[in-house]
């Protein structure tokens, strides 16, 4: 078997990509790896421990918080607070951002926005879920983190990544120099490089739309959903619908096999459902670094100037030519 390269070895090898970094980013990425391994342990035995089901309260999203949402949120917050590289966090499960007051962290160089558990609706039915994160340099000069540190455009991300807790557990991340995927080897408890330099196929036959919302899609999106079903062997149609309702899992599959993911504006979610800071921006960074496109349907996701922590935007991302076809129909019919 070829030489195994662990996540930590890979991170250290790549440290020279950041000549001015003195190792904080490397340590931060390793901390995320450790926290995700702890969460992975709980997910793998979720049916046996009191970690399934609702936590009994609602988060700021208006969603019923799941026990695992809260468990994962706390694990990542503790990891970031104790690591010393992060001066504050913003997460789906916290109403406001959380500046770290402890001496070792209050002057940390970075802030992190994250979705501790993506795809919560799948926890109790044993379907893949994930974690999503973005890392930014702080803007405020000293003292506790400020709101401005979190309301940065996606183009300012220093790194972004996700963990997918699926048939295997993988950590996939980018620092702006390509995308690399690591698979957790439970035997040694290490993430090992398994998907070097991931590139999304430019074409594909998988589309990930929740067509339950078809009636409230824009005309252009309805036309696309009709077009994919037509018989046309020359374009590989009809395409196949693949929709897991865990953004991480849908996008991870589309990165590997080719595909297009879309969560547009709908009647129930007029700005789309997915959150800019800790779902759309990190996944957009990864998709673009893998050669794909990540847009709202009208503008590049990473160019949006955020105005609030939990703002939602429409998301259309994946294989370059497939997203291009959707944009063609949006431009023609909307
Ligand atoms: P979360 O569990 O972090 O709240 O995110 C769920 C999101 C995303 O993972 C997925 O793509 C989308 O919700 C699915 O929404 P629908 O069930 O409305 O299709
Ligand atoms: Mn999510
Ligand atoms: Mn979540
Ligand atoms: Mn949620």
UniProtKB/TrEMBL annotation:
GO terms for molecular function: fructose 1,6-bisphosphate 1-phosphatase activity; magnesium ion binding. Its cofactor is Mg(2+). Gene3D superfamilies: 3.40.190.80, Fructose-1,6-Bisphosphatase, subunit A, domain 1. Its EC number is 3.1.3.11. It catalyses: beta-D-fructose 1,6-bisphosphate + H2O = beta-D-fructose 6-phosphate + phosphate. SUPFAM superfamilies: Carbohydrate phosphatase. Pathway: Carbohydrate biosynthesis; Calvin cycle. Residues 201-330 form the Fructose-1-6-bisphosphatase class 1 C-terminal domain. It holds the Pfam family FBPase_C. It is found in: Cytoplasm. Residues 5-196 form the Fructose-1-6-bisphosphatase class I N-terminal domain. Substrate binds at residues 118-121, 210, 243, 273. Mg(2+) 1 binds at residues 92, 115, 117. Binds 2 magnesium ions per subunit. Mg(2+) 2 binds at residues 115, 118, 279. Belongs to the FBPase class 1 family. HAMAP family: FBPase_class1. Homotetramer. This is Fructose-1,6-bisphosphatase class 1. It comes from Vicingus serpentipes.
């Amino acid at each position: 078997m070829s030489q195994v390269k662990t996540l930590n070895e890979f991170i250290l090898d790549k440290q020279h990509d950041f000549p001015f970094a003195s190792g904080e980013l490397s340590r931060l990425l390793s901390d995320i790896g450790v926290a995700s391994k702890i969460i992975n342990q709980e997910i793998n035995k979720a049916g046996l421990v009191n970690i399934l089901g609702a936590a009994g309260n609602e988060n700021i999203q208006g969603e019923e918080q799941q026990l695992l949402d809260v468990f994962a949120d706390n694990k990542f917050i503790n990891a970031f607070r104790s690591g010393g590289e992060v001066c504050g966090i913003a997460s789906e499960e916290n109403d406001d951002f959380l500046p770290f007051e402890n001496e070792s962290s209050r002057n940390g160089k970075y802030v992190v926005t994250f979705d501790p558990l993506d795809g919560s609706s799948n926890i109790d039915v044993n379907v893949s879920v994930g974690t999503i994160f973005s890392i930014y340099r702080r803007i405020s000069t000293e003292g506790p983190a400020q709101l401005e540190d979190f309301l940065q455009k996606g183009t300012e991300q220093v790194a972004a990544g996700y963990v997918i807790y699926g048939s295997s557990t993988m950590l996939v991340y980018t620092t702006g120099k390509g995308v690399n995927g690591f698979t957790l080897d439970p035997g040694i408890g290490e993430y090992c490089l398994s998907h070097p330099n991931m590139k999304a196929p430019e074409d594909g036959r998988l589309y990930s739309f929740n067509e339950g919302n078809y009636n409230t899609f824009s005309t252009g999106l309805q036309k696309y959903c009709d077009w994919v079903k037509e018989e046309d062997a020359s374009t590989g149609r009809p395409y196949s619908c693949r929709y897991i309702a865990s953004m991480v899992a849908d996008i991870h599959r589309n990165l590997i096999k080719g595909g297009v993911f879309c969560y547009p504006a709908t009647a129930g979610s007029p700005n789309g459902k997915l959150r800019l800071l800790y779902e759309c921006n990190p996944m957009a960074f990864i998709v673009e670094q893998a050669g794909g496109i990540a847009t709202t349907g009208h503008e590049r996701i990473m160019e949006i100037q955020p105005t609030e922590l939990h703002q939602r935007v429409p998301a259309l991302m994946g294989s370059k030519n497939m997203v291009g076809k959707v944009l063609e129909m949006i431009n023609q019919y909307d």
